[in-house]
Amino acid sequence: MLDKQSYKKEKSHKKLLINLKKNIFKIIKKFNAYLIHGCDDFKNFTGKDIDAFYKKNYKSVSSTFKNTIKRNLSKNDLRLHINDPKSTGFLSLDLEEPSNIPTPILNIYKTYFDKRTFCKKTKLNHLDRKSLIFYKLYKYFHKTLRSFDQLKILKKEISKLNKDEFLLISKSVKKAMPYEYEIIEKFLNWKFVKFTNNKNVKKFFLTKKFNREKKRTILAGNIHSKKIYFSKKFIYAFIFGQSAKWNFNHTPMPAIAIIGNDGSGKTTFVEYIRKNFYKMDPLIINMKTSIPFFRFSIYLREKIKKILKYNIIKKNNFLKLMISYIGEFCDLVDKYFKYKIGMAWADSGYGLTIFERYPTDRIRGEFPNKQSKIFPLEQFFPFPDGMVYLDVIAKDSVKRKLKDNHTLAEMNSKRKNYLNLIKEFDEIEKISHSKNIKEKIRLIKNYIFRIYNKKNKQIKLGGKIRRIHWKKNYKRVIAGANLKRHQKDSFFNESN
């Protein structure tokens, strides 16, 4: 029996599949692909991704599809994210090249398996049962396993095999995967409960998971491996940034900042993306000064703050200003490195980049000067591909952030400043405070797909990417009215 939450998820996934059925069919046909799913599995779909095999073809690889993000993975494997604009969801379609399977396993797969069957219900080609079982055994035991539920479903399929089919799979697995065979044999012959409770089995999958995560470039929104810094595409994107010239077949991903006043829900939506957009390999970068890229920045910030408290410094305005300027500049350099890494990750096509907050926060009223042509330096900070502004009314800001001791006047002023500021951007998605959470998620998701299309059109037209452009208004009021409290993120105080 499914719990209520699982039932809702399963129902929403099935609805998503129904809504995107035509798109999926079109893509599968274009790539001449066949599904790594049984006909019944596809009919009773419960996941958020579909797997298929295809043979590389230049025309199919270069194809584009409406409401779809296409990514070039390693070794000619492709991943397509198919959007449903009317809902909060999207499906991921993984197109794999069979030739990427390790040679010993591939040879056996081609000899005895790789058999397809046409399904009258889906009107698509599927792997037949024994071929699917062999591939799943390879995937779960040689590559990675997401949960024991996957093995439970596979066990049911194995029970439907006849004696000869079962024997063929057992012998083939022993030959193809000798290192994993001891565990696979237990899975084939033991009862499922006995298998999952076995200590050696648990240790086997935990080791697999650990080794898999070590190899991953990104995990839970964080760059996990240092290998990325030795990627040619990443280094090229990091060095040249917006000036980089890409091949027209290159598929960069969007880099988007989520901004808004305190209590607007930035963290909530960023965490939603981290959890539910994992197939897009999102890199989450918090642009808060208190979360620096360089650890040394924390030490430096604290040191400069202490120096500014010395009486000899307080009495000398020139020294005080110079040291404050150094602090501001160092903070901005740290943020710039975070920006460069985030943009390089997206531009090189490795995955989606989400900036939680952005230096624009200080422009809307975090800086303790009423007006300045030079400071804050954030006025000159470069921009990403897109920006989502989450609006929130002042009373909700105060209510949701009681610990910050904000006043209504302060938050009203900051909101007014932000609303004026975003009018200067040529690219912005403003989301009204009146929208419910579900609708906000839908709008953010659709915006990600829109920016992807915009960015990739630029590549195809000229090979270069254009960021957000904005008019620098030096007459702008930097600090909001009634902003009297000291700003902890600034090296300047109001007396400066």
List key phrases describing it.
496 residues, alpha/beta, Rossmann fold, 2 domains, 5-stranded parallel sheet, 14 strands, disordered N terminus
Q: Decide which structural class fits the backbone.
A: alpha/beta
CATH architecture term of the largest domain:
3-Layer(aba) Sandwich
What is the fold named in CATH at topology level of the largest domain? Rossmann fold
Cα-atom Rg, whole angstroms?
A: 27 Å
The coarse silhouette is: elongated
The mean pLDDT is 86
Task: Write the CATH homologous superfamily of the largest domain.
Answer: P-loop containing nucleotide triphosphate hydrolases
Helix content range: 40-55%
Residue stretches low in confidence (pLDDT < 50, at least 5 long) are: 1-8
* Main sheet makeup: 5 strands, mixed
Account of the 3D structure:
The structure is a single chain. This protein has 496 residues and is α/β, with parallel strands linked by helices. It has 2 domains: 4-212, no CATH class; 219-462, Rossmann fold (3-Layer(aba) Sandwich). 47% of the residues lie in helices and 12% in strands. It is built from 20 helices and 14 strands. The chain has helices spanning 4-19, 21-30, 39-43, 58-61, 103-112, 129-143, 148-158, 163-176, 181-189, 192-197, 199-215, 232-240, 266-276, 296-307, 311-314, 317-347, 360-363, 394-400, 408-421, 437-462, and strands at residues 34-35, 49-53, 68-72, 78-83, 90-96, 116-119, 124-127, 218-219, 222-223, 255-259, 283-286, 353-356, 386-390, 429-431. Helix 18 crosses helix 19 (408-421). The protein is elongated and about 90 Å long. The model is unreliable at 1-8 (pLDDT under 50).
